[in-house]
Write a structure and sequence with these properties.
heterotrimer, A mainly beta, B mainly beta, C alpha/beta, B: 2 helices, 11 strands, globular, C: alpha/beta, eight-stranded parallel beta barrel, 13 helices
Chain lengths: 267, 264, 434
């Protein structure tokens, strides 16, 4: 009964497989069309796309040429002055960092409750619903290096069930609002992975002998993968697959959603 | 019926990225820069092609003799529900990590966690070696102790203990100034002495307390600051941070830890 | 070459570690420990129930010869009973050991001129469990079965020859117990926390359930502590936490404070982790008085809205116990200023047996029967020396560390200990020499 985990486990594994397959398809789709000469060195003049309205020094300093190797002809380590190195290429130790961006993600899709769901008491005419339409809102600070930081919230109905108990109809619905600190990393171009942790505000609604609402906070985590297709200069559409897990209440769901990405701020 | 509809939506979502790939001219990639950051002790030297360009304390790479690295940050551990039940205790600790190069391969490691009422320190040695390509490895051993004094409200308790650990780590240096380190450790409990009032309890068994796995990222942060962030999953029978709860379980309990340190 | 070996060894070590982790992350400690069953050797033709005097004579401190490395040098043996529906009574012989909160629960029968005891053992600190069978033969059995038995058993008069096994193994390990002396007769209350033990100790019944109240005396308890809250419609129930959660209940979708729900909603849709209903205070007190030999009830007032209702129930069950000739001390526990104020608002609070966790001055003011300090304040010997002669009992809560339990008991300054490990307290109390 309650302790039987095999069926939901199989279901969970299935969903994780689905997530992996989906993301792989996304990655492959991109790989297959990527230019084969991606590694070829393009002349610097062609590479530099001058921004119309530069807001940071990121695009200005381009003194590095790929013809200057690290080693001299004699095979010795080439000693460069701090200034030469300083000018070589923008990197994260330099004061003229950038560009930084603030990205806003708004997503809508479908969720499937993927945890154990068994009412502890026998209900007649029992009905369960694991599907729902969740939405999420995420704000990310995109830095000039790999890791991005942000916050995510949203709303997802985890599950609902109903059935007759002692002659009366009982209805239960459980929903969650994640309040998560999210880290993100761009793995391949346009493809990013997200991982976050924080509390979930879990709500329950009971309709049996009156209506009763309950709220609790449950620590949890999330992982997600997105593929973003640019639609305009500051707008993109992302396909997002996500796993929400409120650990303390043992509520987990798989989410697939379309996410609108808006580059709200660049500096 | 709703299942079918959702399946359809999901399929569309997954397939959507394949669309429009040919329409765009792919952006040219930047060539790799052989002068990636070399920032050691404020003096720039031209890096060789394999050295990490990010300062590190966790990454298993050799540090020049006499060179010091340190991070100062915080560690957050949440209390296990098996012990604290409905109460959730999240007490952050100030976290100081120090690394000093002794020889090409050997380095001195140090770690302190400070919570004022209870503190711990570990000192150890680690030996690093290259594995292959961008992968590096290290093995290390640490020895240290903890001390706690809780004399407020309903508590009149104090305690101290000795502990040690051995660890092995694998590091991966990504091409984008990011150092990823995966470390496994085995924690050893040497002794613990706790007291309530004048009543003393001693545990002098030398035993394996448990195991831990840590993933750490070391990379640039904001401005010229570099940071190390990580997650440590500790599966142990004794965690010094919760000594005052007097857990009596003879079984390993899971303690998740998140830490973030800024390079000094 | 050497460095290759070195690297290979390190990588192999890592792989072994990972393998260990994947094996270590089990759900072994999430559900109640399953007590292994063995073939019924007791309820077969030719077996007889034990006489009351035989049972009484079995109680004592036994020296362990074979098996002392696992179960310690001395074991305390004590009988308890559980009555079903007030009539069908089952007697259990519990053995309390020193190491790791180990206890045995046995049932005994007479077979011809021998005695047979069958049951299980369990360590409370982890999930170790197994079966055991003891046989008492020849002189030992004769001493116990004699009509005039049990007046003055001498050391070695009774020997329990046993075999024990683990959950997976058969009973292949020897365990021999030899009678040494009588149990420590000093009055002392071993009060089981949360009606018998915590959910985290993976007992077969949920904490604060009627079922665990029936189990408590088998675990060594002579009393129970339970936590009282009131439902939305005012029914006093046993529930510890502020919220309905998965630590205490099965997933039902009902969350938030238990006080938000009516008793009917809770009984209809919520079950405790091992499947029991959340009991009312009256059901719990009925179980204590009708079904168990427990002598002390500590009713911890977690969140009470109507203290006068609690007091009415309190009075009713004190009268019920007296009517049955049972000595059951039922105390209203007062852990906070709020509950203290509610209690003092009762017109007859000076006559109501209460247990004060606050200052001794407050305990005196409300005429509490028991003063109960927290153990983390240290051994309350000095204070106890002052207030015990004034008629107060001193209970300490919640003490689980064996080293502290032993020292607190040896100080002989307490009247009782509230613990999650009744078996450990029982061991140290009963083996203590007068």
């Amino acid at each position: 009964m309650y302790k039987n985990r095999s069926t939901p486990l199989v279901r969970r594994v299935g969903l994780v497989c689905w997530l992996i397959v989906g993301l792989t398809v996304s990655a492959l789709a991109q790989q297959s069309t990527a230019p084969k000469s991606a590694t070829t060195v393009t002349p610097a003049t062609q590479r530099v796309k001058k921004p119309t309205r530069p807001r940071s020094n990121y695009h200005r300093v381009q003194t590095f040429t790929p013809r200057s190797p690290s080693y001299t002809k004699k095979g010795q380590l080439r000693r460069l002055s701090p200034d030469q190195l300083w000018e070589a290429q923008p990197d994260s130790t330099r004061p003229d960092r950038g560009p930084f961006r603030l990205l806003v993600y708004a997503g809508l899709g479908a969720s499937y409750y993927s945890s154990i769901l068994n009412s502890p008491v026998d209900l007649t005419d029992k009905k369960q619903l694991r599907w729902s339409i969740p939405f999420s809102l995420r704000v990310m600070w995109q830095t000039d290096h790999r890791l991005r930081l942000g916050l995510e919230t949203g709303y997802v109905t985890m599950y609902s069930y109903q059935g007759n108990r002692n002659g009366d109809l009982a209805k239960v619905r459980v929903s969650a609002t994640p309040i998560l600190a999210v880290f993100s990393m761009s793995v391949v171009k346009r493809f990013a992975l997200y991982a976050g942790t924080g509390p979930y505000r879990v709500n329950s609604n009971l309709s049996y002998e009156g209506d009763t609402r309950g709220t609790t906070y449950s620590l949890g985590w999330m992982v997600a993968g997105t593929y973003t297709q640019p639609l305009g200069k500051n707008i993109g559409l992302a396909a997002e697959l996500k796993w929400y897990d409120a650990t303390q209440t043992k509520d987990a769901c798989f989410v697939a959603q379309a996410t609108l990405v808006w580059r709200a701020l660049t500096w | 019926m709703i299942h079918l509809r959702l399946l359809f939506v999901l399929t569309l979502l997954i397939a959507a990225p394949a669309w429009g790939q040919h329409a765009r001219t792919p952006r040219p990639k930047r060539p790799p820069n052989p002068y990636r950051r070399a920032y050691q002790k404020g003096v720039f030297v031209a890096p060789d092609s394999t050295s990490p360009q990010v300062p590190f304390v966790y990454f298993p790479y050799s540090l020049g003799r006499g060179i010091n690295r340190a991070t100062l940050g915080a560690t957050f551990t949440t209390s296990p529900r098996a012990i604290t039940e409905q109460t959730q205790l999240d007490i952050p600790a100030v976290h100081l990590v120090v690394l000093r190069g002794l020889t090409d391969k050997l380095a001195l490691t140090g770690e302190m966690k400070i919570q004022l009422l209870q503190n711990s320190a570990l000192v150890g040695l680690r030996r690093t070696f290259p594995i292959k390509g961008r992968f590096y490895g290290s093995v290390g051993a640490n020895l240290g102790g903890w001390v706690g004094l809780l004399q407020l409200a309903d508590f009149n308790t104090r305690g101290y203990g000795g502990m040690g650990s051995v660890d092995a780590a694998i590091g991966f240096r990504s091409s984008r100034d990011l150092l990823v380190t995966f470390r496994l450790e085995s924690d050893l409990g040497l002794f613990n002495r706790t007291a309530v009032g004048q009543t003393i309890s001693d545990d002098n068994r030398i035993a394996t307390n448990g195991y831990g796995a840590t993933v750490t990222l070391e990379q640039a942060f904001f401005g010229r600051r570099h940071a190390a962030i990580g997650f440590r999953a500790l599966y142990t029978n004794f965690n010094w941070q919760f000594w005052s709860l007097y857990d009596t379980f003879d079984r390993n309990i899971f303690y998740p830890e998140i830490f973030m340190g800024f390079f000094l | 070459m050497r460095s290759t070996y070195f690297r290979s060894t390190v990588i192999l070590l890592l792989v072994v570690w990972v393998a260990h982790f994947s094996g270590g992350c089990r759900t072994k400690y999430e559900t109640a420990v399953i007590i292994p069953q063995q073939a019924d050797q007791l309820n077969v033709p030719g077996t007889k129930l034990l006489y009351a005097q035989t049972r009484k004579a079995c109680e004592g401190v036994y020296t362990v010869s074979d098996g002392s490395d696992v179960f310690g040098n001395e074991i305390a043996a004590k009988w308890s009973y559980t009555a079903k529906n007030g009539t069908d009574t089952t007697y259990h012989l519990s053995l309390f050991c020193e190491p790791r909160g180990t206890f045995f629960v046995l049932e005994g029968r007479q077979v011809a001129d021998s005695l047979i005891f069958v049951g299980y053992w369990r360590r409370l600190v982890n999930a170790d469990v197994g079966t055991v069978t003891f046989v008492v033969q020849r002189n030992g059995a004769k001493a116990l079965l004699a009509p005039d038995c049990c007046q003055a058993l001498k050391p070695g008069d009774v020997v329990f020859k046993g075999k024990w096994g683990t959950a997976n193994d058969n009973q292949i390990n020897p365990l021999t117990l030899s009678f040494n002396r009588k149990l420590n007769p000093a009055p002392f209350q071993i009060i089981a926390h949360r009606s018998g033990g915590r959910t985290a100790d993976l007992l077969p019944a949920s904490e604060n359930s009627v079922e665990i109240i029936r189990l408590a005396s088998r675990l060594g308890a002579t009393g129970v502590e339970f936590d009282i809250r009131q439902t939305k419609d005012g029914v006093p129930i046993l529930y510890h936490d502020d919220q309905l959660n998965l630590r205490l209940t099965q997933k039902s979708g009902l969350i938030g404070p238990v006080e938000n729900y009516t008793y009917k909603q809770l009984t209809a849709l919520v079950r405790l982790v091992n499947g029991e209903q959340i009991p009312t205070l009256e059901q719990a007190l009925t179980a204590v008085i009708d079904d168990t030999p427990l002598q002390t009830v500590w009713m911890d007032s977690k969140l009470i809205r109507d203290m006068s209702l609690i007091r009415e129930i309190h009075k009713k069950y004190i009268a019920k116990a007296a009517a049955q000739g049972r000595t059951v001390n039922i105390y209203i526990g007062l852990p906070t200023e709020t509950t203290l104020n509610q209690f003092e608002a009762l017109p007859d609070h000076l006559q109501a047996p209460s247990l004060c966790e606050l200052d001794t001055a407050i305990a005196r003011r409300i005429h509490a029967k028991v003063w109960a300090p927290r153990f983390t304040l240290g051994d309350p010997t000095e204070t106890a020396k002052v207030i015990r002669p004034q008629g107060f009992k001193v209970f300490v809560w919640t003490l689980d560390v064996p080293d502290f339990i032993r020292q607190f008991i040896n100080a002989r300054s307490l009247d009782g200990i509230l613990t999650n490990y009744s078996a450990v307290v029982a061991h140290y109390h009963y083996v203590q020499k007068p």
